[in-house]
Design brief:
Strand order of the largest sheet: 3-2-1-4-5-7-6
Oligomer: single chain
Distance between the termini: 37 Å
Number of helices: 16
Shape: elongated
Order of helices and strands: HHHHHHHHHHEHEHEEHEHHEEH
Length: about 400
């Protein structure tokens, strides 16, 4: 997400935070019971990060007080502190807690943030209660205010916030790459990988002489035929590309290493291949592909959810993504230990890896044994979140 996008979304959340309490204004003690201002602050923290969450958490109650008189002056300080921690903590913990299950990440981040925000809000209330008479503020008042009276708000927050954040993630309003505290994290990772492979390129001999027979045994049954439009991702020295070109395919090949691309282009057999130095996550094409191939490189794509989404976006309807190795998982993970550990992620079993693709792809092959590792994935038709045709009927 760009800073402009985050700023605009945060401004919208501030507006919602001011308007939503007005909707509940007719209900007696609605602010304490339903805490409507909390919702946009929590959502802003999740989606835009801790800094924007903190700003929304501070600005919402302050502007609301100035414009509408709510909350009243006595409760404004502890409410600002409470929302400060809601916005900051959701943004922080959502970027630190990563269990491989997005829903679990959201709930854990939300629960921890709600507890911290309530504790800090209660602490400020204790410090300021009734003009400094701190002995008048008890544990009973704290638990009644922050957990008993507002139990409807807790239920609403636990139901609404994960739903909104989950939908925003599903429609790619934000991506997995946004779940890092360092906004330049992805660029730094790509730069590190690029340098690593540039340094290896001069002496690169791995699978440089893979025969057509060996390649055919790996992808010969993938359905690639003459005229297929193929994208070779992380092509390296172009070991697959001459085979594909000779088969009559139109081939685009990309890699983050310029030196690897130069090595691939030096092979006369690859003369008809269109090579580009590119990051797959940022790669675009005017025409969609029949096949996307990823040979011997999947562990280097650490953001696997975004990888699946990007592959889906680049494939034609019914197109296929093939992820494959000619060695077993244990050997592959052995190669990616030591110096390569920082630029790669351990390969799981084919069944586990396939789970990340099930929402957008049909699993057509899933094998993992001593002879190699193969995932064949066919793009499912796009299904909109809202079926307009059904609504019209």
């Amino acid at each position: 997400m760009s800073h402009t996008k985050k700023t605009v979304f945060s401004a919208i959340m501030v507006s919602v935070g001011i308007l939503l309490p007005l909707v509940f204004h007719a209900i007696p003690n609605a602010g304490a019971i339903f805490a409507p201002m909390h919702l946009p602050v929590l959502v802003a923290g999740f989606i835009c990060g801790p800094l924007y969450g903190i700003l929304v958490g501070l600005i919402c109650p302050l502007l609301s007080f100035i414009m509408t008189g709510m909350p009243n002056a006595a409760y404004l300080p502890n409410m600002m502190v409470e929302l400060f921690f809601y916005g900051g903590c959701t943004g922080l913990f959502f970027r630190l807690i990563k269990t491989r299950f997005l829903v679990l990440d959201i709930f854990l981040s939300l629960i921890v943030s709600l507890l911290i925000g309530r504790i800090m809000g209660g602490f400020v209330a204790y410090m300021l209660f009734l003009g400094g008479r701190r002995d008048s503020y008890s544990w009973t008042i704290f638990f009644t205010t922050y957990f008993v009276t507002c139990w409807p708000a807790l239920i609403i927050q636990l139901a609404t916030v994960p739903t909104v954040v989950g939908i925003a993630r599903k429609v790619r309003f934000f991506t997995e790459a946004d779940r890092h505290l360092d906004p330049n994290y992805h660029k730094k990772q790509i730069a590190k990988q690029s340098v690593f492979f540039d340094n290896l390129a001069a002496d690169w001999r791995v699978k440089e002489t893979l025969s057509d027979g060996q390649i055919d045994s790996l992808i010969g049954d993938a359905g690639i035929v003459e005229g297929s439009f193929v994208l070779d991702v992380a092509c390296g020295n172009g070991v697959l590309d001459g085979y594909l070109s000779d088969k009559g395919c139109k081939v685009d090949a990309i890699d983050i290493s310029r030196q690897m691309i130069l090595k691939a282009q030096a092979n006369p057999r690859n003369a008809n291949v269109n090579y580009s130095v590119a990051d797959f996550y940022e790669y675009t094409s005017a025409e969609k592909y029949d096949f996307i191939l990823l040979f011997d490189a999947y562990p280097h794509f650490k953001d696997k959810i975004s990888f699946a989404e990007k592959a889906y976006s680049l494939l034609k309807d019914g197109g296929a993504l093939w992820i494959f190795f000619d060695e077993c998982k244990e050997k592959i993970n052995g190669y990616h230990s030591g110096g390569a550990k920082d630029i790669s992620k351990a390969l799981l079993s084919a069944e586990e890896e396939a789970k990340l693709f099930k929402r957008k792809f049909e699993i057509i092959e899933c094998s993992d044994n001593e002879n190699g590792f193969r995932l064949g994935l066919k793009k499912k038709p796009y299904k909109p979140l809202i079926n307009l045709e059904k609504i019209k009927k």
